[in-house]
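Deliverable D4.2, example record:
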Amino acid sequence: MDAELITAMRTAAVTAIATDILAKKESKHFALFGAGVQGTMQAEAIFEIRDIHKAWIYDIKEEKSRVLTEILKNKYSERCEIISSNSPGEIIKEADIIVTATTSHIPVFDGSLIREGTHITAIGAFKPDCRELDENIISRGRIFVDSYSQCLKEAGDLIMALESGAIEKSAILGDLTALVRGEIKGRKSDQDITILKSVGMALQDVALASFIYRNALEQNLGTVISLDE
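Output generated by the structure prediction step:
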């Protein structure tokens, strides 16, 4: 199994679940920040759970943005207009759904420009000194996390906002498990800005690897090898 691929797959699955629960059902405009390893699967996750009509791809390296845009066009051009953008300020004014998948140390857009009703999934910036989201958008959003304990250790977006006093810990309303179980309310109105901050959990990699392994056994795929030989 390819660990990098498994991580990309399970991260995209988390994005799909969170977006399906938190984004408005009529959302049709999608913006992706970051055209790296995660980019393709993140976009595919969003296309899977919403009828996206227009998508923008943004990366500080324009060539990466253009390459990913062409890859996605080859798969989705019949159902969606896909644009390589060099203007993050413009695309967030139109987007209903935003995914940030970067390694940025500074916010990737101006949070004051985010319109009401937008859903954001932030999967990058998984170090205390890195952040993709500024304090403006953090303070405006209904915040959920994949892991409460891990995000308080690793998610710079939240850690910096807590340290500055922009938010209190009570602003983090719960985790994805509670959302899936219906134990907490996600979106309360069409005007809510919802945020899922994900730093990734090794347990998700193990769960997906186990699923792949069980299916391989059932289908008699793969080769058994011994590490002792």
